[in-house]
Amino acid sequence: MNEAEAKRLFEVTYPGSNFGLQAFCELWANTHEVDVMCVTLGDRGAFVFSKGVGKIIAGLKVQVHDTVGAGDAFSAAFLYAYHQGWTLTEAASFGNVLGALVASRPGAVPHWTLEEILPLLPSESTISSLLTPDDLLADIRSS
Question: Which pTM was predicted?
Answer without folding.
Answer: 0.84
